Amino acid sequence: MAFIAKRTASKGLLPGALRPRAWIIAALVVFILFMLRHILDRLVYYPMSYPQGDWGVQSQVGAQDLWFTARDGVHLNAWWFPEPGARIVTLFLHGNAGNVTHRIDHAQAINRAGSAALILDYRGYGKSKGHPSEQGLRLDADAAYEAVLQLGYDSSDVVLHAESLGTAIAADLASRRKCAGLILEAPLAGLGEIAGRVVPFVGPLLVNGFNTKTTIPLVRVPLLILHGDADEIVPFSQGQAVFAAANQPKAFWRIQGAHHNDLLYAAGEQYVPRLRAFYNSLPGREAPSTN
């Protein structure tokens, strides 16, 4: 009996001896996952807050400051690019990096195509306060949409135009609020798919959301998608997936040789006429012809 008791006691010591090692392993796993999540989060948002950026260009291009507040109280800034006589107004939602000062070329192209433009800086970007998050960006887009209406435009005048990460926000907004049309440049199907390219298998478990592909079937306005077939950040196949899931009427513009950050420039002289043609195709709307 003594021998049996001794063996039982010995067995009882084994789990206790391993327990500290198990805690160390568990803590190490948690730390690694935390660091991966942190790295992936850093890949989602690259805000440049004021005074970073070329703010002196504002007066040169005639952009006007517009300030408004999101539903959760965050103070936001946007630049307003009026276009006299325009019957279309574009709310432009930019990608995950930089700020409004880096979207001047987009704004001017939109103006030349016959639309006024409001370019929003999300929370944490440019002069906007707060810190970016998916829910926060949605609130920011809602506030910018309301700001456009306050400028005197009707919801049926509004074109939502977005690039990269902003395409998920624009698609969500178009699924909930009335608008004339939707333009998506280099749309991502979902953030999980992007994370999976950075950290295979584990990435989608740690970072997800911004699911344009699942939201786009809820959108029922004319759609134009632009995507470069050499995009190294959001693969061309993701733009195709979003297009396949979308309702008619829709059009897909494949821009040969375009990467993720040079889409506008790779499109070149075709960009403005293509936007103008899209505006002209909207039901009951025809943007004035411009040169």
Characterization of this structure:
This protein is of the alpha/beta class and 291 residues long. The chain has two domains: 1-44; 48-281, Rossmann fold, CATH 3.40.50.1820. Helices cover 44% and strands 18% of the residues. An eight-stranded mixed β-sheet has the order 2-3-6-4-7-8-9-10, sandwiched between helices. Strands 1-5 form a two-stranded parallel sheet. Helix 4 crosses helix 5 (166-176). The protein is globular and about 75 Å long. The model is unreliable at 1-14, 30-34, 36-40 and 287-291 (pLDDT under 50).
Which helices and strands, and how do they pair?
Blueprint: H1 2-44, E1 46-47, H2 57-61, E2 64-69, E3 75-81, E4 88-93, E5 97-98, H3 104-112, E6 115-121, H4 134-150, E7 158-163, H5 166-176, E8 181-185, H6 191-198, H7 203-206, H8 212-215, E9 223-228, H9 236-245, E10 250-255, H10 263-267, H11 271-281
Parallel strand pairs: 1-5, 4-6, 4-7, 7-8, 8-9, 9-10
Antiparallel strand pairs: 2-3, 3-6
